[in-house]
Design brief:
5 helices; about 30% strand; globular; about 170 residues; alpha/beta; about 30% helix; 8 strands; 6-stranded mixed sheet
Length: about 170
């Protein structure tokens, strides 16, 4: 499955592939993770908070190609994207493994992913560098087999999304 997850609505009127799942996080009710680890101990693989995140994180786990679109805020994801990525912890197990010389959680049926992370806004070079480092760390934890980080302005956002998704159709 291919997944487009955004922090705001984007124009996908060009989309021909019905197998692409589009999730506009700004239209959903997603609470903050409370750090209870119930998804590891009480209800393994399922968050104890009952809101829209409970159907989003399985989509993240099942996807093999992802496009995450987020405004860049202080070198990180915008709040709604950050909140959802934090709430996706049920796709990992409490168990630890050594991966490329580092400790990482064991994934719970998570597909390896080709990922594109598209950050938009008025972005300084320092923020870009911080964000690249953040995504590199996320890539190790989120089962990305490959990833790219792209930056754009808000004005050009829909055009860049279209370019990325049309590239998907070629592979």
């Amino acid at each position: 499955m291919k997944l487009i997850m955004t922090d705001r609505p984007v124009d996908l009127s060009f989309l021909k592939d019905e197998a692409v799942k589009y999730i506009d996080l700004s239209s959903l009710r997603i609470a903050n993770c409370v750090g209870c680890f119930g998804c590891w101990t009480k209800t393994p693989g399922k968050c104890v908070i009952r809101d829209d995140a409970t159907w989003v994180y399985p989509c993240i786990a099942a996807s093999d190609t992802v496009l995450y679109v987020s405004r860049l805020c202080y070198g990180g994801y915008d709040s709604v994207m950050k909140t959802m990525l934090e709430r996706a912890i049920p796709v990992q197990q409490a168990f630890i493994r050594i991966y490329k010389g580092e400790t990482h959680h064991v994934q719970r049926a998570v597909m390896p992913k080709k990922a594109t992370i598209l950050a938009y806004g008025d972005i300084s070079s320092e923020e870009k560098e911080l964000f690249r480092k953040l995504v590199a760390r996320n890539a190790a934890n989120m089962n990305f087999e490959s990833y790219e980080v792209r930056f754009t302005t808000e004005v050009m956002l829909n055009d860049v999304v279209k370019e990325i998704v049309e590239r998907w159709e070629k592979y």
